[in-house]
Specification:
- This protein is an alpha+beta fold.
- The protein folds into two domains: about 90 residues, 2-Layer Sandwich (Phosphorylase Kinase, domain 1), CATH 3.30.200; about 190 residues, Transferase(Phosphotransferase), domain 1 (Orthogonal Bundle).
- The protein is about 30% helix and about 15% strand.
- It contains ten helices and twelve strands.
- Strands 4-5-3-2-1-12 form a six-stranded antiparallel β-sheet.
- A hairpin with a 5-residue loop joins strand 2 and strand 3.
- Helix 4 runs antiparallel to helix 6 and helix 6 runs antiparallel to helix 8.
- The chain starts with 12 loop residues before the first strand and ends with a strand.
- It comes from Perkinsus olseni (Perkinsus atlanticus).
- Keywords: ATP-binding, Kinase, Nucleotide-binding, Serine/threonine-protein kinase, Transferase.
- This is Protein kinase domain-containing protein.
Length: about 325
Amino acid sequence: VLDAGGYSAVKGQYQCIEVTSKMLPGSTYGVVRLVRWAVDHKLYAMKSVDKWALIERRNTGDQRVVQRLADERDFYAFASHDCPFLVQFVGSFQSSKRFYFVLEFCSGGELLDRVRHCGGKLPLEAFKVYIAELCIAIDFIHTPPLMLSSVIGYVVNFRDIKLENVLIGSDGHVRLTDFGCCKPNLNRFGGGTNSVIGFSIDIMPPEFFTGSGYGYPLDWFQLGILGFEILNGSHPFGSFSADPDDEQKWYPPKYNGDVPLEYQELVNGLLHPDPAERWSTLDRVKESALFEGFDWRAAARKELEVPWLPPKVDESPKEEPGGPDDTTL
């Protein structure tokens, strides 16, 4: 179904420690497990994809399901090592039944869990650091050229930026993960595809509903939704969508009284209904009042003080029985 693509840099035996998530969002064939590699005894996250599930999806009309998986693998391989705020790719391999991605284990879990732990919203300084790091990640994936197996992806949209797809690494810095919805070669500022395979309609921008297509501004719009959620503890649309017919009902969104104006300005800029007016570049975000005097170079080097450092995980091997979940090359 899918060859190793030259990325079979991982060899040895992986022992499953626990299943870290059920079926991935937007997927019916991917499962992520926490594993230990017998070679270095360190912990990794391993995504396994059932080959027969891929074939069934292809046979029922999803003709690009295999190519999307190949693009996801290529994006991990080519992009992750050049940006510290993307989850790091270790390697890939396959067995007779499954295809595997081995990824960095982020011990801090999902940003969604952190928000819930903090009572539904994050402190202002945490918002500032996390949003800055995500802006750097988005700017990176929008910067050409990114080489994918199917095309030269001079423009890549992530298309699924949400709290569940942001992890916190053991160093306390964020990692954008789950590249299964990334789409190469979209028009930079609009007019691209309106395909919705794999991601949530409630994070789609107004231009999606008009049928005019989307480009870079889509990812920044989704970052605006994420920013509003961690500032305000709720979705900016409430019971509405971003359909232009509902625009007066949700834009500008309504904030709690304790959200400072400079934070509101940033999120409102990211959520602007018109993609031509939306804050859709890192340079535009840098011009905001919130980031006046902010040290972006330090942020890019992960030199900022992190809002929260996850407890240290003991990675030393323990006497754990093997079993049917073990994967051996």
